[in-house]
Write a structure and sequence with these properties.
This protein is α/β, with parallel strands linked by helices and 320 residues long. It has ten helices and twelve strands. Helices cover 38% and strands 16% of the residues. The protein has an eight-stranded parallel beta barrel with strand order 3-4-5-8-9-10-11-12, surrounded by five helices. A two-stranded antiparallel sheet has the order 1-2. It binds NADP nicotinamide-adenine-dinucleotide phosphate.
Length: 320
């Protein structure tokens, strides 16, 4: 496992980190508490030292609670990031509320669930249209000054919002969606972060499992599987994405790796990317993703991947 600086905190994070959304069990059916705990604990043997969670992950914070149980006395070996500003309402709908008082309450609740007195990184999960980004950022700055977090990050903001954020609070990390099919940040937010030394930790590196190469062409997603709502998993888009996966598999196999390893490797080697937040709900999944670290693509393999992406063409993965 290789490690990269987390902005200017002095900490280093593994370039493959564990994304702790699937262990919350909401949209990724088929989780069990024992497997979720084993997934977090597998990180120790894999050299993964960064866990990404959020106040919102789980109907009542299951992700954060499971992390606390899994780490036990080894909490200090992990760089823990959590997020505030989004929650699930009583109907289970994702709700934006980034008012200062909400951020403070959620942060304090997250610390209790995580059984810790501070996290290393606290993100604004998303902007809230009714609250100026600067107001949310100012509260995160106060929480940092009070020692509740070592550093502050922001997720799901555009460059204008990132500018506004940094006027109110030093920004250590940015967390956008990014993978072979979702590359919007390459034109603006990624160079913006690179110029300022802001770490970029990306979510959906496997496009919710699509790029892990185990989705069958005739796969039907059940009503409790949120993937059925994304264009990437439907109709012609799905078939074209699976054509891409087939081409990637050929490159991966010739290189002695799995598609997952190839995709994670490609992601963490894109300029400006600090780490891939790889979601997993079973130990073998995060073990495979961790295998994306520690090796380099040859120039020929990189060219073959670019050709596969060119043949795929522009993707419409997340929005209709
Ligand atoms: N800031 C934000 O707004 C935001 C939003 C989303 C996510 N995140 C963070 O980013 C992390 C990653 O996102 P994600 O978990 O949604 O997506 P992801 O990492 O792209 O995909 C994870 C899913 O892929 C499948 N998978 C993983 N490894 C696999 C393997 N080796 N073989 C086959 N399937 C495999 C599993 O689903 P199945 O087994 O069910 O197929 C798993 O739940 C999250 O956990 C969270 O920490 C942040």
């Amino acid at each position: 496992m290789n490690y990269r600086p987390l902005g200017n905190t002095g900490l280093k994070v593994s370039e493959v980190a564990l994304g702790c959304w699937p262990i919350a069990g909401i949209t990724s059916p088929g989780t069990s508490e024992a497997e979720s705990i084993a997934t977090v604990q597998a990180c120790f043997e894999l050299g993964i030292n960064h866990l990404d969670t959020a106040y919102m992950y789980g109907r009542s914070g299951e992700s954060e609670r499971l992390i606390a149980r899994a780490l036990g006395t080894r909490r200090d070996e992990m760089v823990i990031a959590t997020k505030c500003g989004l929650h699930l309402d009583s109907q289970g709908h994702q709700t934006h509320d980034a008012r200062p008082e909400t951020l403070r309450r959620q942060c304090e609740e997250s610390l209790r669930r995580l059984a810790t007195d501070r996290v290393e990184l606290l993100y604004l999960h998303a902007a809230d249209r009714r609250t100026p980004v600067g107001e949310s950022a100012s509260e995160l700055r106060r929480l940092m000054e009070e020692g509740k977090t070592l550093a502050v990050g922001a997720s799901n903001l555009d460059v204008r919002q990132l500018e506004e954020f940094t006027e109110a609070c030093p920004l250590t990390a940015f967390q956008p969606a990014y993978n072979m099919l979702v590359r919007d940040i390459e034109g603006d937010a990624l160079p913006w972060c690179r110029e300022r030394g802001v770490a970029v930790l990306v979510y959906w590196p496997l496009m919710k499992g699509l790029l892990a190469g185990k989705i069958a062409r005739d796969r039907r997603f059940g009503p409790d599987d949120s993937r059925r709502h994304y264009p990437a998993f439907r109709g012609e888009e799905l078939q074209r994405n699976l054509d891409l996966v087939d081409r990637l598999r050929a490159v991966a196999e010739a290189a002695g790796h799995s598609v997952t390893e190839l995709v994670v490797n490609w992601t963490i080697h894109q300029p400006g990317i600090t780490a891939a937040l790889c979601g997993a709900k079973r130990p073998e999944q995060i073990r495979e993703s961790a295998g994306g670290s520690g090796w380099e693509l040859t120039a020929e393999q990189a060219a073959q991947i670019e050709e596969a992406l060119r043949l795929r063409g522009p993707a419409n993965a997340v929005a209709n």
